[in-house]
Design goal:
The radius of gyration is 21 Å and the shape is globular. Helix 9 runs parallel beside helix 10 and helix 13 packs parallel to helix 14. The chain has 3 domains: 148 residues, Rossmann fold, CATH 3.40.50; 130 residues, Alpha-Beta Barrel (TIM Barrel), CATH 3.20.20.70; 107 residues, no CATH class. The protein is built from 16 helices and 14 strands. The protein binds cobalamin (B12) and iron/sulfur cluster (SF4). The site of cobalamin has 40 residues, from helix 1, strand 4, strand 5, helix 4 and helix 8. The site of iron/sulfur cluster has 13 residues, from helix 8.
């Protein structure tokens, strides 16, 4: 069986920081998706004929041609919601000229398939694939069989990188690895605790993976994609020992409470240069992890003293937060930039995006490329104006260098809304499920709305 794995274009939410910056600078890099490494390696377990095409590089037409040239029997598209416009376009363009069977999966599908299926409608036939705890289970749908593969012992194969990205592109990408999946916290807006069974990679498998990235690609730094690096101390210690032996620089993401003095010291000793820390909002009850201003500022200072940059991430417009409280947080973010505590290009500051179906959201009818950048949910028109105002304040105060680009994207967004009969998206209502119950229900199909 011949398989092509496709990563669609990520819309305006590029992953470069800030999203709407028109120049790539301050060390920004494109992070290779671990979904691709694992989709490729798993597919190779079943067939030798696998190719990956990443639509974030090169033209759409050339990439469609590359998919077709491989003469696939199956095409697997891995999509987030932000890249779903591109997924729709690719689906139409490839199925028009190929008889390959189309499978569409990834976070867009896992989060929406059961509770908001109307969002996934495509103009072509396809089979949707939901990840429910087991990241290898999809082989049953695609290959008609499934072997017992375990994240802990599975050996990822990174040889797809050389076939996918030409050397000039490889200079711009950041090599990534994943050492654990899932999360022990349960923030209501996050897919991680809902889609993955918690699991930890064997440090010796990880050592081999790093060796391959260093020897075959000359990688001298990697980014760890684990949603919560310090989820289990023993595992994190083992992984840091492997980094110490490798001599590679590394970065990771974790929660504020785990940035203790001993952890920061060991991170510094083992070559960790930066850590993404999800602060999100200092007052919201939607957040399941402890975050406090004093601890945050104290940790910023201690980490900086050890040569580690803390890259905080903030969310405005969460469902339980008032406009004034959000506005105060945006001013606070500006203040920490002015006080020299964090440069703005190390900050993620986004308007709340309704990635997880929630009966409290009312979605706007805008293309998916705006998700993660502009407001796409509000209770009513007045609330939408307040969310838009928060968004304006974020770009004006936190990312002033994006002003021109922001105004272009904003104008396109407003123009789109002005040409709709109604600004609200029509879809069947999302069933009310208590946020803490969603962790076990979102991807299991035990509550569902009916298929797209
Ligand atoms: C690491 C990470 C990042 C990293 C690296 C991103 C990258 N490109 O890899 C960084 C920090 C850069 C990042 C950025 C962003 N991210 Co991110 N990220 C993650 C995270 C925590 C882990 C992804 C991962 O590596 N998983 C491990 C791999 C092995 O598992 P997997 O991806 O689930 O894939 C397996 C299966 O699901 C299945 N599968 C997947 N797709 C398909 C398709 C088919 C056809 C089949 C058969 C099977 C299949 O098989 C795979 C392997 O076996 C996820 C959380 C999540 N739950 O996925 C969020 C997540 C994917 N990110 C998200 C978002 C929104 C973003 C940003 C848009 C954020 C922003 N505002 O900038 C950007 C987009 C950047 C980009 N270019 O992709 C959202 C997507 C929401 C949604 N519902 O669409 C997620 C789900 C987190 C969340 N908020 O809940 N991200
Ligand atoms: S702590 Fe981070 S990864 Fe875990 S559920 Fe909350 S936002 Fe998601």
């Amino acid at each position: 069986m011949r398989v092509v794995i496709v990563f669609p274009h990520v819309g305006y939410c590029t992953g470069w920081r800030p999203h709407l910056a028109t120049e790539v600078r301050n060390g920004s890099t494109y992070h290779i998706a671990q979904a691709l490494t694992y989709l490729y390696s798993t597919a190779r377990h079943y067939t030798p004929h696998v190719r990956v095409v990443d639509f974030n590089f090169g033209s759409h037409e050339d990439n469609v041609q590359r998919v077709l040239d491989y003469r696939p029997d199956a095409i697997l598209i891995s999509s987030t919601v932000n890249s779903y416009d591109s997924t729709k376009q690719i689906s139409v363009d490839v199925t028009r000229r190929s008889a390959a069977k189309l499978f569409v999966g990834g976070p867009a599908v896992s989060s929406n398939y059961f509770l908001r299926p109307d969002l996934l409608k495509l103009d072509v036939d396809c089979e949707f694939v939901v990840t429910d705890r087991d990241i290898f289970a999809w082989a049953k749908q695609v290959f008609g069989m499934v072997d017992e593969l375990k994240f802990r012992t599975f050996r990822p194969d990174n040889s797809w990188i050389a076939e996918t990205y030409p050397p000039e592109t490889r200079d711009k990408i950041r090599y990534t690895v994943v050492t654990s999946i899932g999360c022990t916290y349960k923030c209501t807006f996050c897919l991680n605790p809902m889609v993955y069974k918690i699991n930890y990679k064997d440090p010796e498998i990880f050592r081999e993976e790093l060796r391959c990235l260093r020897d075959e690609y000359g990688a001298d730094a990697v980014s760890v994609a684990d949603p919560f690096f310090f989820m289990r101390q023993e595992h994190a210690d083992d992984i840091m020992d492997v980094f110490a032996d490798s001599g590679m620089a590394w970065s990771q993401q974790t929660c504020l409470v785990t940035l203790t003095d001993p952890n920061l010291e060991r991170m510094a000793e083992t070559g960790c240069r930066s850590v993404l820390v999800g602060i999100e909002n200092f007052t919201s009850k939607e957040i399941n992890k402890p975050v406090e201003v004093t601890r945050f500022e104290d940790r910023l200072e201690v980490a900086a003293g050890m040569g580690i940059s803390i890259k905080p991430s903030f969310i405005s417009g969460l469902l339980d937060i008032d406009y004034d409280v959000d506005l105060a947080q945006i001013h606070y973010i500006r203040e920490i930039i002015d006080r020299g505590l964090v440069p703005n290009y190390h900050i993620q500051s986004n308007i709340y995006t309704p990635y997880i179906p929630d009966a409290r959201d009312r979605l706007l009818d805008v293309p998916f490329r705006f998700w993660g950048v502009m407001p796409v949910t509000a209770q009513d028109e007045e609330h939408w104006r307040r969310n838009l105002d928060l968004c304006d304040m974020i770009y004006e105060l936190v990312f002033p260098e994006t002003a021109v680009r922001y105004q272009e994207v904003r104008a396109e967004y407003l123009d789109h809304l002005a040409h709709q009969g109604t600004m609200w998206m029509k879809h069947r209502p999302v069933p009310r499920v208590a946020p803490d119950k969603k962790v076990h229900l979102l991807t299991s199909g035990r509550i569902r709305v009916g298929q797209p």
